[in-house]
Design brief:
Helix 3 packs parallel to helix 4, helix 4 (174-183) packs across helix 5 and helix 6 crosses helix 8. This protein has 304 residues and is of the alpha/beta class. It has helices at residues 80-91, 107-117, 145-156, 174-183, 222-235, 249-257, 267-271, 275-289, and strands at residues 8-10, 13-15, 19-21, 43-49, 62-65, 68-71, 97-102, 124-128, 163-166, 188-191, 195-198, 200-201, 206-207, 213-217, 240-243, 262-265. The protein has one domain: Aldolase class I (TIM Barrel, Alpha-Beta Barrel), CATH 3.20.20.70. The protein is built from 8 helices and 16 strands. It has an 8-stranded parallel β-sheet with strand order 3-16-15-10-9-8-7-4. It has a 4-stranded antiparallel β-sheet with strand order 5-6-14-11, with no helix packed on it.
């Protein structure tokens, strides 16, 4: 039997395999270069990029929890100009796709980043709509159906690369948010971003995080993420990148059976820097063991 194909297509972009990094957990790839051959990855999704440098939140920013972790980093980054100067040339040394996570505190800021990146050598944009909308009292863009469509439509006007919209799970109906993003022009969707949570130090009687509330990620959220990917796959007809507690190859295959075309590894990188490569190797074995020639055959392949 010939070697099975892991190649997938997301919004017109061919990836050698479905495995990528989740934004905010891999930097621009430099930190993991000594552990992971970036050439093996389908794509590197870089940390959030804003129009100007963001300082992020006060420390402590990270807390371990049962089955996961909380973070309140606050999207610290040096801004789009520094990203273009330093990170794109670094990543272009490797045979992998570059997906840039775009952040902003207003619709105008999102559009500024998309416009600045329009002529740059990158492959896709990922619109992070879990950012607080400063003009609307800090409520995240991604928790309001109308805002989801509005910000997607606005950024789509400036985006020259395919636009992925990253959905927040902190909503009543994830399928409605997915439909709103697609109606706004999203070429693909990624989900889920972190769930809001907190941790308390009972001896100090204080929140563990300086920002009190943070984003929960890791294995604890996987069943929720899996359910949401499944629901969105039934509701819209665009490619989905699934994420949320993917630690192993088995986890990744579950997400693809639920409807994901690609998968992103986040918290798993902190525990095992080789997680992405090991997942790719498992996928190859899984296809061989099940006599499947093309990984696309398992997408949305759940038997109910």
């Amino acid at each position: 039997m010939k070697k099975s194909s892991l190649e997938v297509n997301i919004a017109g972009i061919n990836l050698k395999n479905p495995v990528m990094t989740a934004s905010g957990t891999f930097g621009s790839g430099r930190e993991y270069g000594e552990f992971v051959d970036l050439n093996k990855l389908g794509a590197v999704v870089v940390k959030g990029v804003s129009p100007t440098p963001w300082k992020g939140n006060p420390t402590p920013r990270v807390a371990e929890t049962h089955g996961g972790m909380l973070n309140s980093v606050g999207l610290q980054n040096p801004g789009v100009d520094a990203f273009i100067k330093n990170d794109i040339p670094f990543l272009r040394q490797y045979d992998t796709k570059i997906i840039v996570n775009v952040v902003g505190k207003t619709i105008e800021e999102y559009c500024q980043v998309a416009e600045r990146l329009a002529t740059e050598d990158i492959d896709m944009l990922e619109l992070n709509i879990s950012c607080p909308n400063v003009k609307e009292g800090g409520v995240a863009f991604g928790t309001d159906r109308n805002k989801v469509e509005e910000v997607t439509k606005a950024v789509k006007k400036y985006a020259k690369q395919p636009l992925i919209v990253k959905l927040s799970p902190n909503v009543t109906d994830i399928a409605e948010m997915a439909k709103a993003a697609v109606e706004g022009g999203a070429d693909a969707l990624s989900l889920i971003n972190t769930l809001t949570g907190m941790a308390i130090d009972i001896h100090r009687k204080r929140p563990v995080l300086a920002n009190v509330i943070g984003g929960l990620s890791g294995p604890a959220i996987k069943p929720i993420a899996l359910r949401m990917v499944y629901q969105v796959a039934q509701a819209v007809d665009v490619p989905i990148i699934g994420m949320g507690g993917i630690m192993t190859g088995e986890d990744a295959i579950e997400f693809m059976l639920a409807g994901a075309t690609g998968i992103a590894v986040g918290t798993g990188n902190f525990i095992n820097p080789m997680a992405t490569v090991e997942i790719i190797e498992y996928m190859e074995k899984y296809l061989t063991d099940h006599n499947i020639e093309d990984i696309n055959e398992i997408i949305n392949g759940l038997i109910i």
